Each structure stands twice: as C-alpha cells, then as structure tokens.
Amino acid sequence: GESVGLHLPTLSVQEGDNSIINCAYSNSASDYFIWYKQESGKGPQFIIDIRSNMDKRQGQRVTVLLNKTVKHLSLQIAATQPGDSAVYFCAESGQGAQKLVFGQGTRLTINP
Amino acid sequence: EAQVTQNPRYLITVTGKKLTVTCSQNMNHEYMSWYRQDPGLGLRQIYYSMNVEVTDKGDVPEGYKVSRKEKRNFPLILESPSPNQTSLYFCASGVRSSREQYFGPGTRLTVT
Q1: Pair B18, B28: CB distance under 8 Å
Q2: Which of A98, A99, A104, A107 should we substitute to test contact with B (largest number of B Cβ atoms within 10 Å)?
Q3: pLDDT score recorded for residue A1
Q4: pLDDT tens, B62-112?
Q5: Which of B70, B71, B75, B106 has a 20 to 30 A CA-CA distance from A19?
Q6: Residues facing residue A20 across a β-bridge
Q7: Of B77, B89, B70, nearest in space to B28 by CA
Q8: Helix (H, G, I), strand (E, B), or coil: what is residue A82?
C-alpha cells in the first residue's frame, strides 16, 4: 500500500548549523508534498508544501527538495535555532487537498 | 484570534460510555478533519468534511462518527469507546483548495 516514511526518527544538530530532514514516499501519484512541525504539547503547524511538478521550493529559512526519481523529499532548515526543536512530519496528498497521509515524524533536537 | 478549539483537552472514560469531543473553528473554513496520533504511527485521518452536511471516511473511521451541521463545528462521537481508541486526537480545518491545515491543541483520550 501507499506509505510515507522517514529515514531517521531523531536528529541532533548544533545551534546555527543547517538541518536536513529526509522523507521517503511510495505513492508516485501524489500531487503535493507537505511539511508540518509539531512542538511539544501542540498541534502540527504547516511549514511549506511543494507540488509534484516542482523540484525545489524555498520559504523563510526553509527549503524543500523533491526528487521524484527516487521518491525522496527533504526539508532543509538554515541556521537552526532553539525554537526549531520539534517533531517534523512529511505528508502527501492527491489532487484533492482533503486527504493527507502523514509519515511517522523525525524529532529534531538543537544542541546549544 | 484565528483558531481551532477542542474540548475537552483531557478525558478519561470507561469502555462503552458514549462521548463527544467538540471542535470549532472561527476562520470560516469549508474543510475540517479529525486525526488520531499514536506513537510510531504518526497522524492518521479518521473523518473529514468538505462542507456542511458533507462528510467522508479517512483511513481509520471504525468506531467513530462525525457530523457537520454548521460550518464552524465538527464534533467527533465515540458511541461505544474501547481501550484501543486511547489516543491523542486532533481536529484541523482549512480552505478546501489548500494543503495548509490549521490544527487544534489536541484532546488526550484514555479509555479504561
């Protein structure tokens, strides 16, 4: 069946370094790929999305890369800050935005 | 303040005792959805609604009911809760055409 998963369950980086969070997907028919951030005790928060016809999209301090050849998605966070500590989820959706399939999440820890 | 609210935030109940978790949004969003979050399984969609009186099953609808009588409210009903429904529940809303969903703070349900 279709699945969205993550390469690593935990990631630790030094404050100020760049972080790269990876995600593998299996449904090549997905139309959008999305990243969400979940801080402790809170609901997920939208970060950025990318359509399947793109390979790169940039936001504020974040960049999402999509490699459809190997079905791989990554989220790059520049100059990581303590406030970036959270669990990051990748998700995918079809042409309709109503159905999101989430991956299991990666916990990002920032070391001072 | 634009937000999604859920009540109660914490609930401990016994097997078979009907309960309702309320969800309300003040952003005039057409789309609303319920997810459950379990360790190692990420977020899984239970039900979603594209508009008033329109609801559809997500990936794990068994044991749950929903209704959408008003645009702002989307209650989750457990007619006969069982221990395997112990979980963290999130309600979300969004503009129908967008992948950006706004999540509530979560409801932690324990069924004994």
Answers
A1: no
A2: A98
A3: 35
A4: 999 999 999 999 999 999 999 999 999 999 999 987 889 999 999 999 999
A5: B106
A6: A76
A7: B70
A8: helix
> Which of B99, B100, B102, B107 to probe the A interface (max A CBs under 10 A)?
B99
pLDDT in tens, A37-65: 999 999 999 999 999 999 999 999 999 99
Q: What does the DSSP 8-state code read for residue B109? A: E
Residues of A in contact with B41 (CB under 8 A): 104
CA distance A69 to chain B (A): 23
Q: What is the mean pLDDT of residues B54-69?
A: 96
CA A15 to chain centre: 19
| Whole-number Å distance between alpha carbons of B56 and A16 | 44
